[in-house]
Amino acid sequence: MAAKTKKTDEGEYVLSMELKIKKENMIVNTKKEQIMGSIAPMYIYSTEMVTSYYSKLNIKNKNVLTTCGSGDQVLNAYLLGAKEVVGFDLNIRSEFIIRLKIAAIKIFTYKEFLIYFGRKMENSSLNYKLYKKIRSSLDKRTLIFFDRLYNKYNFSGTKLVKSCKYFRQRSKMKCNLKLINLYLKNEKEYFKLRNILFTKNFRFINSDFVSISSNKLISKDKFEIINLSNIPNYFFGRYLKKNKIIDPFGIFYHTLNELRKLLSYNGIIFYYCYCSNNDLYKIKGIPPPSRNANIDKMQEILNFKVFKINFKSILGKGFDRIIVLQS
Fold first, then answer.
1. Quick one: 178 exposed, middle or buried, by C-beta within 10 A (0-12, 13-18, 19+)?
2. pLDDT digits over 22-41, tens only?
């Protein structure tokens, strides 16, 4: 039986049988950025040094499970030689933005891509004329989603992308997108990724960090690399406070131990730490998963081999790092 559609409070059509999203999750706040949730604003680009950490992990011919976010964690993994990449995210809209990007890379010239998504964090145009070039290549759900948004904003991509309702605003981040994303470095890398994408069948799983290990869609899969991005920091900083979890580290350690079941022999789990730009995200001090004492406990309690890999910060001053847990 075909999935039925329904109109949500935000005026989008959602395939209800597939997405299973409740209306109470559709919280809109135009004054303050929304927290992570099953329906939350999208990222245009990653706010991590994705190329920097992937290039240090030797991901060629590896199977990668990664949080999806803006989709850049997926795209750079493909470009650096990953055999298969599976993306997961609690935010269902992450699937829409990654599928929009994949369609765009397959059709847009390098210049058109930079016009559409932006040469900088803050100057995306989402130009409607360019969108029309790729809309017929989109899957049904992504097509319906973005068609509704363009209609809602009178076909003005500029108004759409500046909406806090649908996109996270990162105008204060003066960082070099070509350093973050290898596929934006030059035309050669961009077209190399295009050729790769024509040979791949990307999979997306709508799941949170805690539940992904038990998801039936990947229960038989094994991964050499699991990329948690900065989810652990959000997990402690927002989710746990909201839900008043009594033993956050107990849940965190249990989740990491469950994720271990998805790892192949000597596989790794890693997550991202902003070590020099906490003020930007209004984090008071270093979040719990990034603190040395807690990292040492993970090694002791979970019997992971723990490595810290530093690289230039996304803001260009100091360093950021990934915490690597090897099974």
1. middle
2. 332 333 333 344 444 578 99
